[in-house]
Design brief:
The complex is a heterodimer. Chain A is mainly alpha-helical. Chain A is built from 17 helices and two strands. Chain A has a two-stranded antiparallel sheet. In chain A, α5 packs parallel to α10, α6 runs antiparallel to α7 and α14 packs parallel to α16. The N terminus and C terminus of chain A are likely disordered. The chains are: A mainly alpha, B alpha/beta.
């Protein structure tokens, strides 16, 4: 990120209107919502003291966010194309059941077992992603309907395969990685999630693939007319989101050592809420990966903070709901105002006179 | 002059409506052909068919003397045919430079480009040049196109088409939303494009504009071409007469036959 910022500062010398990365960021919803996050953290830091601000607490929060962040990376792409993926939690459950079942049937703790487990989860996730993408992009069924269907189907199949009994993972090298491994003092899973999110953030904001994603969400017909293969692109995005669901499944198994078939019913909505709180427009064409991460932290910090200061943690749901609605409202009014007055353009014009 | 793009007997129906009913058309390099007709005469449908945006029921399209099948906008683009649609077809959330190079992004140099990274500075610089060529009033290259005026958006769309078309450019009512100065700018840039040896097809409702700029005028009515006039020898009465059907019986042509 620092290198891109530096190059953009140079550009501003010959292009006084494009602004630096920082200036452009300042105008985005993500930064506004980052302010909200900072306020929340400050509030709990004051009222919760060291117990809230401790390394252990933030390590725990980041552990809990790791899987959601990986799912959120895919969901950000999906929502920017003005699509939706409701099936992601079920896909995660399905992939984790397939993976855990295979690993327990192979038995043992070898690298081979873990690799098979990982591949199985990724392939299972990819299969659902492919199905979603095919039905949405080529069969032209609305994403809401398709993913509502696969939400139900993937979970149903997970129950069929597991007969409703959660499968424990015997491969300790996988669970040890999830629980104990640290790099430079950071737990492995959040670090892995961070790497994935940064890569997808760069792809979204810096590459052709990302630019085409925005274009499709902004005006699908325009994208088609300039020769972007819209159907293939949408297909790929849902496929990637499925793959990330599979990776999330492995991370989940590594973290908890067991499947939780009934425990992911709100995962999809939590991820979608995080993406939207982070300023990504549900109507497509606008959004950022950075915002999604901020949007993930707000519910997690609220949850943790409420527990620490002794407020019934069920209030977290209420607070997140309020933040979600407020975030979208503020975003809409802000953009409506920008649309009416185009203030940034106007200022630029006045500046040149 | 030989026609670079030529169409014969194009038909296309939507249910019971014959949008194109044996329409003919031709345009040569370095000339401006105006395509006029009342609403529903089939101008926009014809343009769609000639730019790969519409499948035909029957008819032949020839490009450079060879029959071609324009089955997608990409095919048309590859031949050097571009179009500025009436509804602009810009992505409102993207900025002018991003729109200009949408689908044709300039890759960054070296390995980064191979990985899909883009040369944003180069694209911005070229966009600024193109807009300046057009005498445009677009000042910010970083604001989303959706926050700009209709005229500015039109300029971006025209600049984009002209930047990519090296054979034929279609302009579907390019000046409909523009003020006097901007209209003049657009007409000037159309002349500039023509002088570069590119064929320009202008769809317009403004008769003075058509008479000012067109080398030939082709009039459409009820899905077919009913008349072709030399731009310098015709007048508003004649054009309106042909458009409304008050004048024309069969196909009239007082201009030099293009083909």
């Amino acid at each position: 990120m620092t290198t891109t910022a530096a190059t953009d500062v140079e550009k501003t010398t010959d292009d006084d209107e494009s602004g630096t990365v920082l200036q452009r960021l300042a105008g985005t919803q993500a930064v506004w919502i980052l302010g909200v996050l900072v306020v929340i953290v400050a509030f709990f830091a004051i009222s919760g003291g060291d117990r809230f601000l401790s390394t252990a607490n933030f390590s725990l929060i980041s552990q809990n966010l790791a899987v959601l962040a990986v799912l959120g990376a895919g969901m950000t792409f999906v929502i920017i194309t003005s699509g939706i993926d409701l099936s992601i939690g079920s896909v995660l459950v399905f992939a984790s059941v397939i993976s855990a079942k295979l690993m327990s049937e192979m038995g043992g703790d070898g690298a081979g077992v873990v690799i098979v487990g990982i591949l199985a989860a990724v392939v299972a996730g990819a299969a659902w992603g492919f199905l979603n993408g095919f039905l949405i992009a080529y069969a032209k069924i609305p994403a809401l309907i398709v993913t509502l269907g696969t939400l139900s189907a993937a979970l149903g199949l997970a129950y069929v395969l597991s007969k409703g009994i959660n499968i424990t993972v015997g491969a300790e090298s996988l669970t040890d990685f999830g629980i104990y491994t640290r790099f430079a003092g950071l737990p492995a899973l959040p670090l892995l999630a961070l790497v994935i999110v940064v890569i997808f953030g760069i792809v979204l904001h810096r590459t052709r693939f990302g630019r085409h994603t925005f274009a499709i969400g902004s005006n699908q017909e325009a994208a088609r007319r300039v020769g972007i293969r819209v159907d293939r692109h949408l297909m790929l995005i849902y496929l990637i989101t499925g793959v990330l669901g599979g990776i999330g499944a492995v991370m989940y198994l590594a973290q908890f050592g067991t499947t939780t078939i009934g425990g992911q019913s709100l995962t999809n909505l939590n991820v979608i809420a995080a993406v939207v709180i982070g300023g990504t427009s549900i109507f497509g064409g606008y959004g950022s990966m950075f915002g999604t991460i901020v949007g993930l932290f707000i519910p997690a910090i609220l949850q943790s903070g409420f527990v620490i200061i002794g407020v019934d943690p069920f209030w977290q749901g209420v607070a997140v709901g309020a933040v979600l609605i407020a975030a979208v409202y503020v975003d809409q009014t802000r953009r409506a105002a920008a649309q009416r007055g185009a203030p940034r353009v106007k200022q630029a014009k006045e500046g040149t006179k | 002059m030989t026609a670079v793009l030529k169409a014969e007997g194009l038909t296309r129906s939507f249910g019971h409506v014959m949008a194109l009913n044996g329409a003919d058309f031709e345009v040569g390099l370095g000339e401006v052909v105006a395509l006029i007709g009342d609403n529903g005469a089939g101008k926009s449908t014809l343009v769609k068919a000639l730019t790969g945006n519409l499948a035909l029921d029957s008819g032949v399209i020839e490009f450079d003397g060879r029959p071609v099948t324009l089955d997608s906008p990409t095919t048309a683009s590859r031949l050097g045919i571009e179009v500025v649609h009436q509804d602009l077809a810009l992505a409102p959330h993207l900025n002018p430079a991003q729109n200009m190079f949408l689908g044709r992004e300039i890759p960054a140099k070296g390995v980064l480009g191979w990985l899909g990274f883009m040369d944003n500075k180069e694209m911005r610089d070229r966009t600024r040049e193109r807009l300046a060529d057009l005498g445009g009033t677009v000042r910010s290259l970083s604001s989303p196109v959706g926050s700009m005026s209709g005229g500015q958006r039109q300029q971006i769309a025209i600049a984009r088409a002209i930047a990519w078309a090296d054979k034929v450019v279609f302009l579907d009512e390019p000046t409909a939303a523009l003020g006097v100065v901007q209209t003049k700018n657009v007409l000037d840039s159309i002349k500039r494009v023509r002088d570069r040896g590119i064929a320009v097809v202008l769809i317009s409702h403004s008769m003075p504009e058509v008479l000012e700029i067109a080398d030939r005028v082709q009039v459409m009515r009820l899905g077919r071409r009913v008349a072709t006039y030399d731009g310098k020898e015709t007048n508003v009465e004649q054009l309106v007469g042909a458009m409304t059907g008050a004048l024309s019986l069969g196909e009239v042509s007082n201009g030099k036959e293009a083909a």
